[in-house]
Amino acid sequence: MNFSIKSETPVIAWLLVGLAFMFGLLTDANADPAKEVRIATVAYNVNGKIGFNGTAAIVEEQGWLKEELKKQGVTLTWVPVTAQSVGVTINEGFANKSIDFAGYGDLPSIILNSGGVETRIVVPGGRGNNVYLVVPPNSSAKSLADLKGKRIALHRGRPWEIAFARYVAASGFKFSDFKISNLNPGAGAAALAAGNVDAFVTLSDAYQLEDKKVGKIIWSTKSAAQDWKMRAELWGAKDFIAQNPAITQIITTAYVRAVYWTSQEAHLDEYLKIANQNGQPENVFRREYSDDSVSWKLRWSPLFDDLVLDHYANVAQYSRQANLIRKDINTKQLFDARFLNAAIKELKLEGYWQPRKVALKGA
Amino acid sequence: MNIINQFLLNVKHFSGLLLPVTVAVVWEFMSRQGDAYTYIFVPLSQIGSGLVELIQSGELLINLGATLQTTVIGLLIGGFAGLFVGGLMAVSPLANKLIGPLYHTMRQVPLLGLIPLIALWFGNDLFSKILIVSLAAFYPVVLNTFEGMRGIEHKYVEVASVLKFNRLQLLIHVLLPAATPSIMTGFMHALAFAWVSTVGSELLFSTGPGVGGLMLMAQESSRMDIVIVAVVSIGLTGLLMNASLSHLRQYLLRWRSVR
Amino acid sequence: MTKIRDLANSLHANVLFFVSPILLLLAWAWVCSAGIFPEQILVSPAGVYQTAHELWGSGELQSHLHDSLYRLVLGFAIGSLLGLVFGVLMGLFKPIDAFFASTFNALRQVPTIAFIPMLVMIFGVEETFKIVVVAKAAFFPITMATYDAVKGIPRSYFEVSKVYQLSHISLVRHVILPATVPPILTGLRLALGRSWMVLVAAELIAADSGIGQMMEMGRQMFRIDIVLVGVLVTGLIGFLLDRSLRAVETHLGRWQQS
Fold it and tell me: Contact at 8 Å (CB) between C28 and A5?
């Protein structure tokens, strides 16, 4: 066993290069106030042009953030991340300190924090996105019960695992009742189209599969309790936030401005046009948003309310039970509401959104 | 048997084309057998229009260019690092004893298996890809440089010692020129490995431009035509690079023998 | 005399063999205990050992190993058998050679890895896909090696054997096998290494078991210790495969000389 150790790192020279590089990264992080802020966001490459996803697209479109940061002498760098491996890529980015903020999902963040890399939620991402269960169009399956013992494509450790796990548990099953294939969304969709899996768990791209007649939605979180929806928030590296409160405030305010703009019903069409740049057809968004129990305005509520709190407590509990994480994690410490509260006050948005039950007081 | 041989010999001149043409005909035939078949057997015309679409949008050239760039940078870094380390091992017995065992075992680690580790340490961008590709190019060049220099006839080294060459002079004036054929072979292997690992790392890192990313996107949207165009262009580009390096090698070696 | 010196040399080399690995291990342990890198970036050797122990204890590691090796053995057997037959046929019969050569050479240019998206679309992500990938990776180098080996048998060997009126069996036993086996073995060894690498890559991309999948899962779950165990195990297996085929090569080389 011992002498195979060497396979773990490249030749000594490379090791030294690596050490030097990582020293650089680590010492950089402890330097004076940042001159650059790097925000990772899901992006799509459409015909060589990069389009951002969701709120980041609006923030970029508004241009306010870039201007404000410039006044402080700070440059804004968007770090595009492919939808195929958002959780992993962003977790690795936080771990090797190549990003400062990221908009991404609940489960990967819990996995990261449990692994010892500390991040904080600065702006909660509204009431969440729907998760869908898709089967081949000719499948006779009507519910989870019909899929017992069958093969289901699910990218493990991604946010939609939580919603699916709740559905599984609520239906009286366990993961081991199915053959779970750990496939990224692209490979999962391909496997469904080729008939290699009997079901596929995914997000709103489920509608695209229906349009292409390779899939049929048999279940979604639209029909489930509101807190089953998948959540994604704006996360920041704990150290960066502590060292750069002013920059963090600007970013928070920019995101709240963006969601305030989006949450106005009048901007719906324009929002869809901007969001559409990421390659998903407009009608996919419309269907994702339609027939939903949440109103358009509330969908974008950035408040730290009990919905967010309970959700994370649940995610942590599930992750521990499913043995995805090895340590218990206190999810309350993940919330940093200072910047959000200040932004709401600054933009005079107190009372615009109604919190679900008790709101979290500023830390 | 003889008759069959005779017949086959008669068609020898174009027999190399026979198989591809047959495959194309069968392919086209299969593509007309219904929707379930067109999923895999894309009609040839659709592959053609896919190619036109990719060229017109510039996607093919942008992605191919990015892949080529990664390969070339990795080949240069890894190749010259390999030249250095291989030369060091050939000149210094101590270096050989220290580096050799590490080198020979590490070479067996599947390079693409290092990707999860490298992604965590160095991120998911171009740097990590180039690191993988450099390593892929590094291994064969070390081996061939070392063996090329070790395999030099002893009389050259004796001549050098008569001329009182120091180690550096020995390396530059004797070892390096004499080992050039072997080193070039190493670079040829390195190119092949670099090309494979570039495509592989693009499939596994799935960020940034590159033919690997193009293929993944096509796979996601079930566009077999684009996948086929990408596979063919990977093959052709590999062939082209191989041919040009082999010309360079011939050129270098001819110059040597003339001298 | 030379034998004794060889023995002494090899003993010397064997001792030296462990110097740099042990140095590296010590450096690794030292870097970890000095806390230069956070634990989530670099796990200590002891931590990796403990994780390996846990994975072994729960039977997880064995089951992944079993799946990977099963795919490797089956795919490699299919690929190498086809490669041997095909290489011999192309080497012996000119028309077959002419018929397949251009297609074969064109396909050979495309790295196996580049076929993965296509193969996933055709075969899905089940066992078939992985076995096809391994078989493809093995087939081409083995066909090439066999072809070259068969082509490399000098014509004069056949003439000489005709003069001595050797039987077919002894022709094969004393002429063809000794001339072709060593280069084919080298081809097998190269092919095995490539098959292993391609299998690990394929498992990283799409699988529900196997060492590659264990690493990918470790990556998704941010468990660098599991990833490291995977890297060590894949390296160890690659090393052992290479060494055992090399041993066969030297063994047969000796047999051939005697």
Answer: yes
